[in-house]
Amino acid sequence: MNFGKNSTHKKRKQLSSASSKRGKRAGVTFLRVLFLSFAAVCVIFCCMGVGAFRAILDTSPDISDVNIMPSGNATFVYDADGNQLQKLSAPNANRMSVSISKIPLDMQHAIVAIEDERFYEHNGIDIQGILRAFVNGVSHGFHFNEGASTLTQQLLKNNVFTNWTNEGKIERFKRKIQEQYLALQLEASLTAEGMDTKSVILENYLNTINLSAGTYGIQAAAQRYFGKNSEDLTLSECAVLAAIPQNPYAYNPIRFPEENAKRRKKVLTNMLDQGYITKAQYEEALADNVYERIQETDSSQETVTPYSYFIDELTSQIITDLQEQKGYTKVQAQNALYSGGLRIYTTQDPSIQSILDEEYQNEENFPAHTQVGIDWALTVQKADGTTQNYSKEMMKLYFKDHGDENFDLLFDSEEEAQNYVDQYKAAVVGEGETIVAERISFAAQPQSSMVIIDQHTGYVKALVGGRGEKTASLTLNRATDTYRQPGSTFKPLAVYGPAINDLGLTLADTYVDQAIAYENTNRPVKNAYSGYRGTMTIRDALKYSCNTIAVQCFRDITPRLGYTYLKELGFDKVTDHEVINGQVYDDAREPTALGGITNGVSTLELTAAYAAIANGGTYTKPVFYTKILDQNGDVVLENKPQTTKVFRESTAYLLTSALESVVNDEGGTGNGLQLDNMPVAGKTGTTSATRDVWFAGFTPYYTCAVWAGYDTNEFLEDDCKSFHKTLWKKVMSRIHEDLPYVDFEMPSTVKEATICTSSGLLAGSGCPTRTEYFETSTIPTVRCTRHYVAPTPSPWHSHETDPSDSDEDADTDTDGTDTDEDGTDTDGDGTDTVPGDDSTVPAAPDDTAPVPDTPATPDTASVQDYSAG
What we know:
Distance between the termini: 134 Å
Number of strands: 24
Strand order of the largest sheet: 2-1-3-15-16
Structural class: alpha+beta
Shape: elongated
Strand content: 5-15%
Oligomer: single chain
């Protein structure tokens, strides 16, 4: 480089030249513009960042609306004595929240030591932790894997930002900012309210977290792993649980005890380092063989028992009530039931339910020849991608079409049933087709169901929907979901009750048992017994279950009135001009008198209807629960009984008295169902071909109805026609065993009177008599004279010269009848009028009512004798 004089002068000249100055100015200007532009960009980006940050904060949930309490708590069901019956929970709602006072300090400190060591110092966010995580992330190539969330933030993430598992990077960044912002607000608001901020957060956090094995919250986990309540956890056990939340799958102490043990040691080390435990406590906890206890507890865990039939119906009713009374959708109602942490108080009597369960699981109470029924369905994906469903009904048609005319879906064993299923599957599933789903279950046949109600309250005390052990929840409940023809059990409800209540008929009024046909048809009304028995009182017609008289009386009250009474008695499925497949069905018709209706009735409905008679004529809709409380003890639903006055007290008592005759009197269709220490009133019912058999009866304490039949609606063999009565008597005998004797209470509006059993009038001289009950306004005022025998004239007025020569067998009153009371017809009506002798009417078998394969109107139906007992 040349630093001479000339060279230096030349350079100075260049620097001071105009062109040089212009170049410098341009460069400086450029630099200024560049700097200002950069500054402007920085300002713009800062403003945008601040604006975006502000927008994120502005879109955060309002702290006043934030609920940090855990959702998804298990619901508990209690019986009438307050005992826990069942826990209801969704898969992610198996939590049972407890207060902080029920959570040991060791558990609180363990979770703080491993998850948020500065929890008691920060105000919601951990600045030191955030900086540490940032530095570590930068140093590892901007891979930010270290978390800095506080327990407060985690609580908000789990209970407020519940969709975090599905968020992308932008959503995650936004959520993190809002989470930190709300964490500060939450702790500040709790402090401002004077609450113990850290305890509130810890309580909700420990009741929220997923602790693996389907447990949520500390209480559920304590019971699952250690078989104890949270308040009884040891330090070692607390450390096991505190090790789980970071990765519930990997640190599951049942599946991966070694991995849990490693993290458990870190929990204990942190607790020691942070001063929560001493060295001695640390060493004692590490030495504890806690995982052996966990395995023992796990092996002793009872398998989840299926819901009982009572619980099945209870859940159905609660979901309906939440929709109708609270305006929930079905999904909302289900979520509330299984995840709402509700407390449901039911009407179930545990001792009565136990009796039903025992008797229905005792195979000695059922016919010796038990068959097996099947519930089966199959879904197949065809080769072309379409889906085809197959049912047991389709299988039945297949085998009938292939020559097995007697195929009825009843088998001698499960193996035989499975063999038929396999044959059918082989026939319908072709090459290249795939079975998508299959459902199969077996049930002993014939089946039965029973319901017991306290008629005074309407409380359902016990219920069973099938014989044998229940193996699954929400299965077929024959007590509530199966609707079958009720047979003669309808006679007191649809015929004689309305006749006494509305027409003023009495139990002493008479009809003639004679040949009749249903109106608008030529089909005769048949009795279960052969022939006809002439004049009968309503009491006797009910006792012997005479079909012809029931139909005649139904005509007198009109089928429409009988239908109205059935509706008031809770039979929701009786129809009024219902259109099915273009055909009109109406149960306001004569076969209804004998239980021949379109859709049938459930055991629950029939029990409730008879309970109305037992309750002085007041119908109460069956009650399964009394109240439902939320976690705070506030009432969600209160189930007040819904009542309807159907019969007068006098009518109900008269029906009760007549139904006592059904059970107590020789020849009554329910004879033999008496209890040793309690009065019983009731009515039998049998449908045509003996497909369904019933008995509905009551005592002064309880009403009980029982049904029996095949699920497939096949007819019952002779040895299957009375086992339902055995069940009813065994159950009711055990229930009443230690109850004090009480008689049915007669109201003041009912009086006794002695009547003529032939005419129904007040008994006169020579009449066959019976003491009968009447509503006071209907007591007969006319005395019967049909059986009066004139005094024998004195000898000097006699037309006979020798009194000793009189013919006692001759007609003594010139009316053409025999008046010597020798057991022959004395009044010309075709009946036997021996005074006080009712034995001339032979004992009647139970009545039988045909159940049409498809419901039909009187114009199109093959109307038969729908009932016999």
